[in-house]
Amino acid sequence: MSLFYISPMYWMLVTAMKSDQELASFPPTLWPQNVAWQNFQQATQTFPFLPYLSNTVMYAALTMVGSVLSNFVIAYGFSRIKWPGRDLLFYPVIASIFIFVQFPVNPITMVPLFSLFAQFGLVNSYIPLVLPTFFGNPFFIFLLRQFMLQIPTDLSEAARIDGAKEWQIMCRIILPLTRPALVVVALLAGVNAWNDFLGPLIYLQNDKMYTLSIGLQFFKTMHGIQFNLLMAASCLVVLPVVMVFLFFQRFFIEGITLGSGR
Amino acid sequence: MGRNRQRKIRKDLRSLLLGLLFISPWIVGFFLFLVYPVLANFYLGMTQYSGFGEPQWIGLQNYGELIHDPLFWTSFYNTFYYVILAVPLGVFVAIALALAMNQKVREVAVYRTLLYLPSVAPIFALSMMLIWLLNPRYGLFNYFLGLLPLAAINWLGDTRWSKLAIVLVAQFGAGQIGLIFLAALRAIPSTLYDAASLDGAGPWRKFWYITLPLLTPTILYDIIIGIGFGLQIFAPAYIMTDGGPLNSTMFTALYIYKNAFEYSRVGFAAAVSGILFVINAALAIITFWSSKYWVNYSIE
């Protein structure tokens, strides 16, 4: 089963390393006879890889910042302060996870939101993609709230008796304790942005602004027949995600399981 | 006494304001990025709007038009076809992955990585890969089918197989939900299995009478999320088939996208989005409501 699951990625890598002749041979060879490293170099020259890479990195970084800041504060309000109606207001958060599923761009809301951003002349910029991440993501709110509820309330109470302000408690006591969960949110948000296809497809129309996801699609329509080059380009796009995942694997796995404890 | 009560009310009011202050970004985001577009779908759905200028009010004309558009019905047929196939299969695959990741062998960490990795990889890259993997002449997939003496299948070019191919791509992303099932598996107390062993239950009976009932809350979560993802399936179809062949993978999300952004029929697309929202919400509510008949929330 593991072999089946890794097969697309394996095949992506192997195809990327094949020469044109070997690509056309049947039955396909399971490992390239001569590794054609030049495919990778050629792929980066066939489409503006580096500009798209920097666009994507910027998009992912801004999304990470927005997600960590907004969801931390919101989840704090939903877990560390007692106020009437708090748990009632949490129902819409849960409901929006189940109905909209993908944030911030999804097929249900994309048409009116695009029209809205278009009226403000913000299409063809990263604002429609990044701005919503500064206003909370229900899934991340849920994740962080679960985490913060496990921190003993005594810690906050003691600080309150000492006369600390709420924002002081948040920054000095709760923030350091929530750091592992915030790393999870940052990682998931970054990967989401990196993997986002629909958002950039709709909002980015100038080919200088493309992310790698749209750049790759563009590459496909231009050079679709050269599968070894397309796969070499795909490898370069997937590689950073794989590296980040392998490096922070523990956080990914803990983060996912954190959301299930209900 | 009156004074105490007044103090309590004042304290409640202060904590209410403080709480609302902290969650205020979410309140803004909720209304601006979710409530507003949902309502705007119904308003724009009653207008003729090309994306430029002012929307022209035309009442229910868009809805009349879409009822007579065979492609509208095709798109919903395809979408439901996909959901009905992909959701149960997704639950099955995720549980299988979780059981595999729960094996007590030394290399389990490696398996877990391999099974989970494709779900963090971008779906657009996997889709590109699958075009090649499913290629009828050079693809690895048909090569293996050929070894089994099965006829070569033109996966993405044959209306009978194209939807299945897209269901297949989605299964590579099952690792994420598989991990949630894994956590649920680990939460089952081992004493239950010990007691069952004493009563002479085999592995199959243990799975059927202990594991599966205790996984039902996770199954519920998976079904609701799966319905949402299924109804909104977009990227694999856009990349692999662009709705073809013969509109056999023209899913509703793709239909909305094409109308809004390729044919400039924004009002019409908004009408379809509104319908998609109603169906999505209704199915989520029905599934949630049905849970009281089949979901176990406690261990007793």
Q: Which features characterize this protein?
A:
heterodimer, A: 262 residues, MetI-like fold, 0% strand, elongated, B: 300 residues, mainly alpha, 2 domains, 2 strands, 1% strand
Structure, described:
The complex is a heterodimer of chains A (262) and B (300). With 262 residues, chain A is mainly α. Chain A has a domain at 59-211 and 243-258: MetI-like (MetI-like fold, Orthogonal Bundle), CATH 1.10.3720.10. Helix content of chain A is 72%, strand content 0%. Chain A is built from 14 helices and no strands. Chain A starts with a helix and ends with a helix. Chain B is mostly helical and 300 residues long. Chain B contains 13 helices and two strands; from the N terminus they run αββαααααααααααα. In chain B, a hairpin with a 7-residue loop joins strand 1 and strand 2. The longest helix of chain B has 43 residues, at 2-44. The radius of gyration of chain B is 25 Å and the shape is flat. Classes of the chains: A mainly alpha (262), B mainly alpha (300).
Average of pLDDT of chain B: 89
Q: Give the largest chain-chain interface (CB within 8 Å).
A: A-B, 87 and 90 residues
Going by CATH, the homologous superfamily of the largest domain in chain B would be MetI-like
Helix/strand-derived class of chain B? Answer: mainly alpha
Overall 3D shape of chain B: flat
Helix/strand order of chain A: HHHHHHHHHHHHHH
CATH architecture of one domain in chain A: Orthogonal Bundle
* CATH class bucket of one domain in chain A: Mainly Alpha
